[in-house]
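Margin note from the TA: students keep mixing up input and output lines. Inputs are the sequences; the output is the structure of the whole complex. Example:
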Amino acid sequence: MRKKRFSNFFYDYVQPLISNKKSLAGSIILLFFILMATIGPMIVPLNMNSDFANRYQRPSLQHPFGTDYFGVDIFQQIVHGSRSVISLTLLASLFAVIIGTVVGVARGYLEGISGKLLDAIITVFLVIPSFPALLILAAIFADTKLNTVEVALIVAIWLWAPLAKQVAAQVLTVKSREFVEASRMLNMGLGYILFSDIAKLLIPYIFVNFVTQLKSAMEFSIGLMFLGLAKFDPTHWGVMLNYALYQAGALYTPKGFHYPFFVILNIVLLIYGGILLAQGIEEVFNPKLRGHE
Amino acid sequence: MKYVVDRVLYLIVVLLIAISGVFVLVNKMPGDPAYGLAVSIAQQRNMEMERALEIAHKLMGIDPHEPLIVRYWRFISNLLKGNFGYSSFYQTSVNEIIAKALPWTLFVISLATLVSFLVGIYLGSFAAQKRGTIIDLVISGIASIIQAIPPFVLAVLILFIFAVRLRVIPLGGAYPVDMEPSFSLSFILKVIHHALGPMFATAIPQMAAWTLAMRGNTSQIMEEDYIRFAQARGLKDSVIANKYIKNNAMLPLIASLAIAIGYMLGGHTLVESIFNYPGIGFYFGKAIAVRDFGLLTGLFSLIVIGVIVATFIAEIVYALIDPRVKLK
């Protein structure tokens, strides 16, 4: 039984990923960064002691990405920072999926005033522009030391609403179908109907949504760090970018150009991997887009 | 008609929830807006900080002991009268700041959105027609890579490369400080010159998004039966491409144009702060930095109202241009 489940999972989700060129390329890029985050810090040691004699060294064999304003190796920081970048992104997407599904299912199932109110709350989170709101949140938490879970929740607040809307629409259409009616007639209980009958239909949506929001999760968490939630982790890439541009003024000195350059390069490559994976997955799972490549 | 009324009422409820949430959030922000003033009073008059804070609060018209609910009620009832509040930092009404800042923001975002929309539509449909060729690969590839650059990173890069290094665009402001606003040609040229940085930072990510959206829509429509039928009827390829495909692929995007402009109102915050461009976003960033709660809630309300109105317009436009979406 377990084995069958696994092979179903493989054929339903893993195989389509590999068969599409874009999602394959995206998966390889993301896998590279996940490896960097999991085993990278074990292989590459991190030495954060300032060494002003070696400030702004150009990239070399000893320092693949050069050194920063304090003479600290940038490559080491990128590798160690990937851990918090990746874990934040995955956790934020996971939270968003959980909140979005729960709220969406509730909205789809509830009728009358409470349903309408939930609908309004979903719309509120859809219409509030996220960057100004993130700016306020960054200011509120600027002096607090937050852990990964807390930052992931702050990011997830801006990601869950589109999924909730989709899930709610799905539940609304499904709710009146025969097999749900049948379960209801058989007194199977709300829990069974929601989690067994309806959830089965929702899994592809949730899966696609998890991947498509990875890009925003990365962008938001890096933005939040960049905007000054700097007490989080000094090697997080958003914090590094903030240091590079505002603390060290690296772009004002011609010698320091490589510092922000390598940070930005890694950020863009990571997000690009997320975009490729998302585009590929949408092509695979959205039949309307199928057959265009 | 009933649908429209229902929709408006619903959006007003949404607006109220959003504004109330932001009001509570802002008022939970740590920091006292009067603190800076109190420090200078304490130094000048050589008095205790507590006493100085009290004087500063009086001078700025802030009552720290006033319950939140009273403040909230005043904020909402003022908003209903079209009064966005009072800025304690600038010592003036928020409406006055909006009147000063909104034209700059609208100028940049509407021009940037319009240009990026037109170019994106063209590039997207062009890429879709050349599907599978190198041209398509280059256009959609570059667009995807641009999408991978967070907008704030792009803005910072433009500022540093073109303003700091190459010095071809100014570092900030909407026009030179030593110039009086007038309708002279030299002033208008200066205004355009100062807007270039924020405009490119706004237009480039949008252009990529429009291109990809248009390419997707066009590809989808090219598979539809009526296109095959048109081809079978022997219509010219150029007629099919422009009249049948391009128009139909563009229609849904026209509806999102309104939403895009609405969201830009908020998304422009970082661009304006980075370029020191005196629009809504610049004052918003300033309000956060100096803990000006009145200015902050006022500007945020304005942004949310903008987005909601834009969403509503988009819904109406969509219903008008797409006969399949009938108003119930």
